[in-house]
Amino acid sequence: MLPRPTVCDDGAMAELLETRRTRRSRGELRDLLVGAGRAILEEEGLAVGAGELTFRRVFDHLAATTGVRLTNASVIRRVWENQEHFRADVLESIASKADASGELDRTLGALAPLLDAFDRTSPEARVRSLCELARVGGEASMRARLETRDWSLWVGVWVLALTTTPTGHRRRIRDALTTGLDTAADVWEQLFAGICSHLGLRVRAPLTLHQFTLAVSAMVEGAALRQGGDPELTLVERPTGPDGAPQEWTLFGVCMEALALRFLEIDPDWTHVAPAA
Amino acid sequence: MLQAGLAILVEQGLGVGAEELTFKKVLDRVESSSGVRLTNASVIRRVWENQAEFQDDVLLAVARAGDTGGEMGDTAAALVPLFEAIDLSSPAGRLRGLSEVCRVGGAASLRTLVDSRNWSLWVGVWVLAVTGPPSERGRRIRQALIDGYESTTDAWAELYASMASYLGLRVRAPFTLRQLTVSVGALVEGCALREGAERDTAAIVRPTGPGGGLEEWTLFGVGLEALALQYLEPDPDWTGPVTTA
Fold first, then answer.
1. Which of A42, A58, B19, B144 has the CB geometry, 3.0–4.6 Å to A48, for a possible disulfide?
2. Looking at the domain that runs over A103-266, which CATH code has it been given?
3. What is the ipTM for the molecules in this complex?
């Protein structure tokens, strides 16, 4: 049986079966408890905006899952001034991760095989490829969001931050959201730039790729919020396959295609370079 | 009591949900705003079994409200003067009219939503219901949200149907008007959330005015135009706007 570590009220950690005492740093304690706090929220949802996230529950969670025992004295005034500061830290850590669902990686994973296979020999074929990207990428992107608790937590923190006056902790959470959104937007913008370059597309003047990215992000967030409450967001069958064969589209994919065709156009100066044999 | 509870949430936001909506707070509000003095004994086991049940009722009221922020009314009001000036004599003129409707109506619609405390409360309750663990309470709130959502979506679909009919447009097969409505609703809510996090979004200037004159667009307006052109097309059988005597 492994020794069960105990953290004493002064922050020192002891193992019951050994006399060796280790003192955890403030940062380690913080990471430990923020992680546990997030785990509770992931299991039980925001409920009423982290109001249920008490030190007591976090300590119990840690004891049950890791054997680490903490008391109020281990953290209050050592790591956080009070419980409210702890909650704010947990919410801030969620808020700062705008791509917590791994949506980008999963979308890229779905798109990568398509990019190699696309016919790019004519402007018509390149536009068709763009539409196929919207269909497949839209579906992958939406699924990534809906299948993770991280995303619903993140959007929950976002919406709750918007419904309150941004003072104190709330301002920190809102700032973290903004930073997270900017970082995620930069990465998506790079992805879209790569796709445009690959397919020989450019942004219609005077629009910008950044605006396209923001429009797509707003679309996916609005659509994901509605998913689950509206059956119309399910699949639409359209004759977009080879020779007019029917293909399944999510409504979000349809919207992605609309945005892509409005913001992007064929770049007449682009030259197709066939891949080396 | 319900109205007072709603007023507190409108002023102070959901904060940490409705848990701060205590009987004490609400009773104080009732007294200061109406002079009516109530005590816990006035309501507990008479109106609600307990405070939590009261909080649920307030959340249900928010959930059912749907579009009480007047977003649709404000959007329609912004569009009325526009419709009289639209050139309906050719499909190209009607499509130009559609773009102008997206530009002006989109700006009005987004602004109303962003400024609406009712909407931010509603979407907050929605998110709490979506992120919460499955429970009887969550199920009731979710059902109320869907009811409010359905009636609001139906009302918007009617408005879009009227506008499409006036402009001589029809829905492209195989889409439905409902799909257009849901798509536009998702986009405007996504844009409103972004706007809430990042105010001061610069206007987009496009040469869409008469003679290529520059006009200001919101990002939502541009997206709305994209969706409108995706879902709608000129109706070849259209013979002109239906006018009432």
1. B19
2. 1.10.357
3. 0.85
